[in-house]
Design brief:
Elements lengths: L7 E2 L2 E2 L2 H4 L29 H11 L21 H13 L4 E5 L2 H12 L5 E5 L4 H13 L3 E5 L5 H11 L5 E7 L11 H10 L8 E5 L17 E5 L13 E5 L1 H14 L5 H12 L1 H21 L3 E5 L9 H9 L6 E6 L3 H10 L4 E2 L9 E3 L11 H7 L5 E5 L5 H13 L2
Parallel strand pairs: 4-5, 4-6, 6-7, 7-8, 12-13
Antiparallel strand pairs: 1-2, 3-9, 8-9, 10-11, 11-14, 13-14
Helix pairs in contact: 3-9, 4-8, 12-14
The structure holds pyridoxal-5'-phosphate.
Length: 424
């Protein structure tokens, strides 16, 4: 019989796609149920008072797990079978030691900062960032004495180091935080350059770590741990959930770096619910099918937009020109171009709105990565909180539209996009 942790047959290593249907779960413990039931419970019965004492000692770090021992179940804010199986499966995609699930992508991001950065320390971060993350690093974290310094796509290491020295002299660098590709412009940031910056600031004490928001391409098309990153973050709301019916987030990395985050999650109460965990497990079974199909359609739609007279410019990773400085990063860092397309309508906000209002199959909504195609206007929605000057500097113009390609038939999507562009 297979063991629930088997990821090999003989010496043949099984791929994540093949493991999403059974890994980490034993049907015989749940009446033979092929699928894990929803463990819809807030608390768990201890077999004895001594066992309860041991589980809490483990949770508070007063005792260590024995070799081969599994942590006992206590209370669903700390752990729950649906979430633990999900975490084991999520970690497989990035070949990571561990994963932690949160009640939103922002929950995962906030937890990472709270767990690893202290007042007086510096976060060097890329821009643009998703609008919520941008607000957190530009406005919330400085109120707690955390310094933040931004750099843009294409900036050289020397320029970034000079800015760091000018804007945060004498403050220790603790984290390089990047979102690549960036929401909403699809700009790429070089993870290996960020690793070099982090290593250059290491002193042997609270050394800087590199954290990558991999929401746009991961886990299929980009594996930041392979490039040296320490922690990967996901909004699971997007491709991993994939059906626009849940909100969740995750952090993926080494057990050592995730341990303090597990404690922060317990004490800030940012665990996801068992039902969300169950939905995410179901989504993981079709993750590669969906992402493959979405990418294939995006690869047909992007060239159509390039040729369209009502479109001024298109930013799609599959269409980067070989002389584009980001082409080299793409080749080294990404395994595929994904299905996010940013493009500028010929005109301004009014023309972009005319296009968005004329769409019939593609839905007008924020978010991305779901089975349905979604279009949105970043400057007035997801990135409305970013100042106008900063938006212009980052390329978030009033004519920019962001398109998330779903699993509909590509020919129907092309038809809809074409008829909506004719309304411009
Ligand atoms: C790149 C990126 N990171 C993080 C988030 C935040 O995720 P959530 O909405 O699940 O909190 C988003 C949301 O759009 C995003 O696009």
């Amino acid at each position: 019989m297979r063991d629930k942790w088997d990821d090999f047959i003989d010496d043949h290593k099984l791929r994540p796609e093949s493991l999403m249907m059974g890994y980490g779960y034993r049907p015989e413990l749940s009446e033979g149920s092929m699928k894990p039931p929803v463990f819809q419970t807030s608390t768990f019965a201890f077999p004895t008072a001594e066992a309860g004492k041991h589980y809490f000692a483990l949770a508070y770090g007063l005792e260590e797990l024995e070799e081969g021992e599994e942590s006992g179940l206590l209370y669903s804010r700390l752990n729950n079978p649906n979430l633990e199986i999900l975490e084991d499966r999520l970690a497989l995609w990035d070949s990571a030691e561990a994963a932690l699930v949160f009640n939103s992508g922002m929950g995962a991001i906030t937890n990472t900062f709270l767990s690893h950065v202290r007042p007086g320390e510096v976060i060097l971060h890329s821009g643009p960032l998703y609008g919520g993350t941008d607000h957190l690093v530009q406005k919330t974290l400085p109120e707690f004495g955390i310094r933040t310094v931004e750099f843009g796509p294409g900036e050289l290491r020397e320029t970034i180091e000079a800015r760091l020295a000018a804007e945060a002299p004498d403050a220790p660098l603790r984290m390089v935080y990047l979102e690549t590709p960036a929401n909403p412009t699809n700009d790429l940031i070089d993870i290996e350059m960020c690793m070099a910056i982090a290593r250059g600031h290491a002193t042997g004490e609270r050394d800087p770590m590199v954290v990558v928001d991999n929401t746009f391409l991961g886990p299929l098309w980009q594996r930041p741990l392979d490039h040296g990153a320490d922690i990967i973050l996901y909004s699971l709301t997007k491709f991993v959930g994939g059906h626009s019916d849940l909100i969740a987030g995750a952090a993926v990395g080494s057990k050592e770096l995730l341990q303090p985050m597990r404690a922060t999650r317990t004490f800030t109460g940012s665990q996801a619910s068992p039902w969300t965990g169950w939905l995410l497990m179901r989504s993981l079974e079709t993750l590669s099918l969906r992402m493959d199909r979405q990418k294939a359609s995006a690869e047909l739609i992007a060239p159509f937009l390039v040729e369209h007279p009502k479109v001024k410019s298109v930013r799609y990773l599959g269409l980067l020109a070989p002389d584009d400085p980001q082409h080299k990063i793409y080749k080294r860092q990404c395994r595929g171009p994904g299905s996010m397309i940013s493009f500028e309508i010929d005109g301004g906000e009014a023309e972009a709105f005319r296009f968005l209002n004329a769409l019939r199959l593609v839905h007008l909504a924020v978010s991305l990565g779901g089975t349905e195609s979604l279009a949105e206007h970043p400057a007035t929605t997801t990135h409305a909180g970013v100042s106008i000057e900063h938006r212009e500097q980052l390329g978030i113009t009033p004519r920019l539209v962001r398109l998330s390609v779903g699993v509909e038939h590509y020919a129907d999507l092309l038809y809809d996009l074409d008829q909506a562009l004719q309304a411009v």
